[in-house]
Amino acid sequence: MTKQPTCRPGNGSQFDGEFLHNITRELLKDTRLNQTLTNVVIATFDIKTQKPVIFSNYKLENAPYLNALLSDISISTSAAPTQLPPYYFVNDGVEFNMVDGGFAAGNPTQPTISEVLQHNEYPNILVLSVGTGTEKIKETFDAQTAANWNPSEWISPAIGFLGRAPTPWTEYYLESLFVGSQPGDIYLRIEEYDLNPDFSNQVNASQESMNGLEETGKQLLQENVVKLNLDTFDLEKLQLKNSEGLDR
Quick one: pLDDT band at residue 192, thresholds 50, 70, 90? Predict the structure, then answer.
């Protein structure tokens, strides 16, 4: 029988993370970053220094303190604020106070490509960026309405804006790098931009939700590739299926 995550009552994170922490350590044992079979780039965020921390094989020569246990790195990058508690560990005398890398980089493709471009003189890049799905944006505010908000009324919509804002900027950056290339030649982004709200709860691991996400993924393969218009920031469908882009 699979043990379910333990809920944390009252204030603090939604789950205590103990089950995740234990099974992560059990699977990864004493493996460190420098022992991965290929180069990896894992984004995290240190809430004490208020700086991103990127655990990358490329950085180990100049920053050996980043050669941490993969279990510590994995727990760090999964510590989504409000859902799982921040994670503290020490490696090579350096303290880390970590939360999920999505706090600073919702899409890890950007820091990954940046690492590759920095450390490879003539990189031959093929990028597959797979999203986790997002609900369709509903236009609910306008400037005239917002002009009358008091400071407290800005809190809820501001959180929503900030949560979505990095997505188009990240996609703008990535699409700009590969202007002129055809989807699937160098860069392919696959994302469900109209995810069924019933399947958008990040902690709903019910069988119904899992089946719904799996079916969504299968349907997504047969849908057209969506690309960001660099002038208007609108999403445009191309005459190419996601499955065809993958084959290309």
Answer: very high
